[in-house]
Design a protein that fits this description.
This protein has 303 residues and is an alpha/beta fold. The protein has 2 domains: 114 residues, Rossmann fold (3-Layer(aba) Sandwich); 179 residues, Rossmann fold, CATH 3.40.50. 35% of the residues lie in helices and 16% in strands. It contains 11 helices and 12 strands. A 7-stranded parallel sheet has the order 8-7-6-9-10-11-12, with helices on both faces. α4 packs across α6. It is elongated and about 65 Å long.
Length: 303
């Protein structure tokens, strides 16, 4: 009998693992408790709260699989798991539409000064003449990281009449680029040529702090940057300075170096902040759990 421990909150009614799999649901399990029982399970299902590091993996003697609904595996030591023969799966495909829509929403909100308009109107001010925005049609959209989400944003951007530039560390095929109407460029060219930039990269030693003072200085004056990937990809102090100096026209962050965020980023001008809700739609959350259930079932059916 396969035993699965669910360490974080999931909606069990959406998770179908089959009768051959026994599930223990302990969404509040502490680290010490996890270390004590890890050796009893064939699989762990986690979200962002639970860390599966070397210590946990060393204790989990019969572990074969770590599964995380959604995207991102920052809290799993994936390379060490591979050394131990433990597979790691997630379900990033389930969040594509939700995150892509959130990115476009943030860009539109900044472009049309939506937050300022809402706050001013509710406060009794009628600031119609001061709230002149700009249209996205005819602008250039730069997408850093051209995976599923990046490609979907490219499709929407083209529908809005935008030119699309793409950058990825993996070479992009001409067929892929032509299918979404994008052009591959270097990262430096993307930053210097785009009116809107959106980031879709994992947190790695190479991407940590990749958008700092030097890259922000390359941006066109008045341009906008959006980050819904991982907080540490942008140097928040450098972004705050660039916004305050008017070197960057606007920014929207859904992810932060520390969550909840602190410091100058909360007071920077022309910035829109949301609490890591890019994937928080009913559809995406349902799909994330359904897909991870399918992957767990498929893994153990082959074992």
């Amino acid at each position: 009998m396969v035993r699965v421990l669910i360490c974080d909150h999931v909606e069990l009614e959406r998770l179908s693992l089959g009768p051959e799999i026994t599930v223990d649901y302990r969404p509040g399990i502490t680290r010490d408790e996890l270390l004590a029982v890890a050796g009893e399970y064939d699989a762990l299902i986690i979200r962002s709260r639970t860390k599966v590091d070397r210590e946990v993996l060393d204790r989990a003697r019969r572990l074969k699989l770590v599964a995380r609904p959604g995207t991102g595996l920052d809290n799993v030591d994936v390379s060490y798991a591979k050394e131990k023969g433990v597979a790691v799966v997630n379900s990033p495909e389930s969040l594509v539409e939700a995150v892509a829509e959130h990115v476009i929403l943030l860009m539109l909100a900044l472009s049309r000064k939506l937050v300022e308009a809402d706050v001013g109107t509710k406060s009794g001010r009628w600031e119609k003449n001061a709230l002149v925005g700009r249209e996205m049609k005819g602008r250039t959209l730069g997408i850093v990281g051209f995976g599923r989400i990046g490609r979907r944003i490219a499709e929407i951007g083209r529908t809005l009449g935008m030119a699309v530039l793409a950058y990825d560390v993996i070479p992009l095929s001409s067929d892929l680029l032509s299918s979404v109407g994008a052009r591959a460029v270097s990262l430096d060219e993307l930053f210097s040529s785009s009116d809107y930039i959106t980031l879709h990269v994992p947190m790695t030693p190479e991407t940590a702090g990749m958008v700092g003072t030097a890259r922000l200085e390359r941006m066109k004056r008045g341009s906008v940057i959006v980050n819904t990937s991982r907080g540490g990809v942008i140097d928040e102090a450098a972004l705050s300075r660039a916004l305050s100096a008017g070197e960057v026209g606007g920014a929207a962050l859904d992810v932060f170096e520390t969550e909840p965020p602190t410091g100058d980023i909360l007071k920077a001008p022309n910035i829109l902040l949301t609490p890591h809700i890019g994937g928080q739609t009913e559809e995406a959350q349902t799909n994330a759990i359904v897909v991870i259930g399918e992957k767990v079932r498929a893994f153990f059916s082959k074992s």
